[in-house]
Amino acid sequence: MARKAVCCGLSSLELVLMVLFLLMTGIAVGLITVLAINLNSPTEKPEEPIPSINPPKNPYLIGLGRADCTGPAADVPLMGYANLEQTAGGIHTRLFSRAFIVDDGSKRVVFVTAEIGMISQRLRLEVLKELELKYGDLYRQENVILSGTHTHSGLAGYFQYTLFMITSKGYIKSSIQPIVNGIVKSIDLAHRNMRPGRIFINKGQLLDNTRNRSPHSYLNNPEEERKRYKHDTDKQVVTLKFTDLDGDGVGMLSWFAVHSVSMHETNHMVSSDNLGYAAYLFEQDKNIGSLPGQGLFVAALASANSGDASPNTRGPYCINTGERCDYLNSSCPIGGREMCLAFGPGKDMFESTRILGENIYRKTKELYGSAEQELQGSIHAAHQWVNMTDVTVQLDSTHSGKTCKPALGHSFAAGTTDGGGALNFTQGSVEGDLFWDGIRDALVGVPSQETQDCHAPKPILFNTGEMNKPFPWHPAIVDVQMITIGSLALVAVPGEVTTMSGRRIREAVKQELEKQNAFTNPEVVVAGLCNVYTHYITTYEEYQVQRYEAASTIYGPHTLSAYIQHFRGLARAIAEGKVGELPKGPEPPFFSNLFSLLPEVPVDKSPGNTTFGQVIQQVDPLYKVGEVATVTFVAGNPRNSGDMRDKTFITVEKFHNSTSTWEVVHTDASWETRFYWIKGTANQSNATVEWHIPLSAESGAYRIRHFGHYKQRVIFPVITAYEGSSHTFRVTKTLYSL
User: Is 310 labeled as catalytic in the residue annotation?
Assistant: First the structure.
């Protein structure tokens, strides 16, 4: 009774408090128990993150790397238009080498795409020598492919054959060394970054961004063959997506057939052109907050079968009259060939580069984002050196053909509607010219009858295969190479392959791989401008028309058939597992005592009462986004700055009031900046910097700085660093902002 009286004597509030007390005590004891268990279980691992897609059982090891390969931004000819007057004078965008290494546990391959005109034999040999010193036989000619994006605004001077040296002012050590070092560094970084990862492949079509610049040649291909394709340029984009094991992206590599000639031959700034800008946009999108050339994500756009694929989509017209050019030989009634040029799609070359780059970027981003097919399987690499001057080609069961000693036809000197060419040469020449042939005979000799017969119907302008002083004028020994990664076959073509030529190579390699049932529906990619430069590769039918591309097919009408024969051999060896039985072939030469025609940098002088780095044209105090801030400095020759890789000649900096510090927001690698070096008289020069202020620029205080070196001579040359800065100026969203 007493207990009952006590119980019943509790108030409702007291009962609730007692229940809450008991509940809290239980919860506290439970938490203490869990904590004690965790503390006494140090070997227990936290739960692993769930992969975004189920990883393969045997993942590849992948490594990606990017490095600056920009050389001296002054005096050195730009490589592409063969115009000695088009010498470097500043930087539009920097040039980068991007390396991709893939390893399946037993074999390893490397693909490098560098933002330069093309890979020369000399460049490849020097890179391989450096790799051998560092890695022994890990990276060698069999498993390393080097490809150029074919920008015509990269630096020249990295060749060892006479024809290329003449149009490059010789072999220029200060030009080739940054390229060698940049390529090797990109491979070093990729090697250092290797880790398990995955590769996905996707492909699609990018329309309305290229135009065939030799449609008359294309139409000479068999009608039944042309009917299989909707377009006279290759619209295919092939994209590889590189991820870690969790499926998170670390890199992108894509191929698209377009000539990197959006920047015209009137340009004097180093520029990566349309493919380079597409890669730039992709990397900036992925490496948020990083300056160009920085950040972990590596994105590359590489060249494909772009030999006749022009980015100048408005087509050719006579710049003096506005009329359309003659269809057959691309010339104008008044002014001839030099007046016939192609433009577009923008109002100037900068806008055209931007439009093409943005379109390519958007397509590759779309393909990257939707890539689901994963590459899996073994890796293979096959390589041979071939004497391309003496290849017998089996054309059918009863007929054979033969390649020729190198020679260039008359239409080579005509150039293309994208630029180049001079004098009164025109495209489509199938007959010689008494005047020019007479000059040729007097200067370099008469082509042998054998060479003339071999190259017919090409009228020979330069019989380069018979010209060997001071060095051979063209290569005879050429690399043919192919690698496979799972179902992907990558064919390294040593030149500029036309649209239909590329299609034939793809088809032939695909057929050969599928014959042995070792590959099921392989994806074959033609990578252009690889390993050694041999000008163009047209079809036999295109060769008969003798436009520029055919006149520049240096090994004669059966050049494509010879390459297809050798690529079939490589594919067969891979499919049958007989790569080790392939003949190595004759090694290419490595010439010494190469000449340079680039003069030494003279001493720099500044105008009276000025110093180097001093501003002689100031910025305005206020700019609105979308406008251009411009400042001009007294400058030295940029060649005096030596190796400027990973450095910059200019910065755009923003002031932060909260910390009283300046932040670099742009460098000379940025699309928004243009660094013009203007060579004056009496060894004086200026540097003009433009900042094309983007609409995304924050309001605030900014300044533009310039860095350089000048050369003086007292008893011996002395190089001195200098820098200069503009006044501080404000950027606003509107001119009425405070």
Answer: yes
